[in-house]
Input
Amino acid sequence: MATIEPYRRKYAFAEDYGTSQYKFGPLAEKPEVIENRGFIISEDSIIYKIAGITKKVIVGPEVAQYLGSREDMAKYLIYPMRDGLVEKDNKIAWEIVYEITKYGLLKFTPKNDPHFRGFYVTAALSAIAPKYMYERIFDIHKKIDKEYGVVKAVTIIPQPLAVAIAQKTITCIVVESGHGNTQITPISRYPIRGGIISLNRGGAEANAITAEILKDSGYGDLVPEETLVRMVKEKLGLIPRDLDKAIKIAREDKERFKAVLKIPGTTITIDLGENSWMRFLIGEIVFNPEHEIFESYYRRGMPRPRDTIIGDEKIPGTITIGKAIVRSASKTPLELQPHLYKKIILSGGNFAWKVPKGLEDVACNAAEKVAAQLSEQGVNAQVELTKDPEYSVWKGAIVYSLAVPDDYKWSWDRLEGWYILH
Ligand SMILES: Nc1ncnc2c1ncn2[C@@H]1O[C@H](COP(=O)(O)OP(=O)(O)OP(=O)(O)O)[C@@H](O)[C@H]1O
Ligand SMILES: [Mg+2]
Output
């Protein structure tokens, strides 16, 4: 990569299509981030007509201005992806993906560079994205290029492969856990399709238990505020090294584990009080939703993570991350397995859990938790967490935009190369 032409360096562009967020932008420390959602303007609304609003789909930060009642939000605010996938015939969802992509590209389009001929775009999609998603993503870029001349070439990369590239590895298991789902992908140069396990859980499940805990602690009226629940989860949630021990210690030493959070910009202070020990449930559910303590929550209506069906095999939705990794590795050649276990890479925001100072004896980070679960399975593995877990997919996609040579054309067999637009 020593001789990247200046043009490519300047106009390499990466897009990470996540279930909750869309991350995009050229080479930089961090990507820009917007919610992966669109607000649909109902066409018959007189008030919008009077205000001269003609756009049908609003995306980006502007969406906030349109949010009305909660019923309206449920009806008009649409997240186009579910577990990383867009349904083939969901027209409105694809329209939102188009708007989001356009928003991202136009945001970085240079105003006065006469040499600008468009970006080299790498789009990162779920490792289980079907072929129609590839086709649609190419089409969307073609359309935007036709309208605005902003895409020179585009390529698509599976998200876990982008993570591996960001970590400069080609033999590993990538575990990517975002808001919607958790993908376990063994990689040996390219993702090993038969070994991919996609679990139907992610940050959303930790949000769900946080909401239950808030209800039990007298804050039920705040639960519909998704952003607040998420903040409480991220600030107060802890991963226990061992849940049963952690609960016992936290109940005995209330002062050390007290969970209090002032919500910035509001007058609200959350204090879990006697329930402070429950902060360990928030972290545990990500790694081990089959712990018996969660049964009562499932019984009272908190959704149990759905099972994953692969062929005639059923993977329980509540399987521990450790057991799921072992299942995934077992689907790869025997000789490869020890090499895979030598490098297990965790990425995605749902692994970004912090350990507050002074609680290290009871709480741990995601890599320590997964290593412990693997050790219970008799596997001695090396587990690492990427530096900015939320951004590793985007980072790898940028590296890819810089690395793929100009004359390497897209191939539907290899699923590699540039799809050149002009
Ligand atoms: N410090 C943190 N502690 C715990 N969870 C966190 C932290 N930071 C982010 N998260 C969670 O990570 C999730 C978002 O992760 P990410 O941005 O990787 O998802 P995504 O790419 O939008 O979705 P997906 O990859 O499932 O399609 C959210 O549930 C968020 O609350
Ligand atoms: Mg993601």
Notes: The pocket of adenosine-5'-triphosphate (ligand 1) is lined by residues 18-21, 84, 178-181, 202-203, 230, 234, 348-350, 352-354, 390 (CB under 6 Å).
